[in-house]
Fold this sequence. Notes:
The chain is mainly alpha-helical. The protein has helices spanning 6-15, 34-42, 60-63, 79-91, 117-122, 128-134, 148-166, 174-182, 188-196, and strands at 24-28, 68-72, 93-94, 103-104, 108-112. The chain has nine helices and five strands, in the order H-E-H-H-E-H-E-E-E-H-H-H-H-H. The protein starts with 5 loop residues before the first helix and ends with a helix.
Amino acid sequence: ESGTGKGLLAKFIHKSSKRKKNPFIQINCPALPESLLEAELFGYEKGAFTGAREQGKVGLFELAQEGTLFLDEIGDLPFSVQAKLLKYLDDHEIMRVGGTKPKIVDCTIIAATNRDLETLAKKRKFRQDLFYRLNTFTIRIPPLRERPQHSLEQVSYFLRKYNREYKLRRRITQQALESLQSYPFFGNVREVENILNS
């Protein structure tokens, strides 16, 4: 679900890997329109399209060389970009927009979604071959309402953080803690942080 900490888990995996000294690059897939998303991920050559930089642009795959590329909300990735991602996963080659020569890139891909990719693949709304290629190791992060004991840890963490940041000494009463523990936090960790920061 949104706000469960998928990005934090991806960073933790990167920092715990042999690639930790190399780049961690993150992109929210639905944040950009399809035409820009392809150019952001794979880069483009000089004069590839109207408005392109004179010298071209390096894409996020190349920036993540020997590091990790985190594709957040991959369930919203357009089919045309899914095909290029599958090509990368198969042979570690990318082609810049407007390019003629493939480039070899070595990076780990971590993908996250709040959608059921298996169901989307069965309904042909997500490429089945890409789903099976990505689905090598799955981690499900349950929402906070399924793990209420963690909501107290989150409350404690953000209380310490904002007390330090704003030079305060605020505390939470036992009654408030009990209320927070029974609250479902539909926005998950993001909602806990917003409550503690307001």
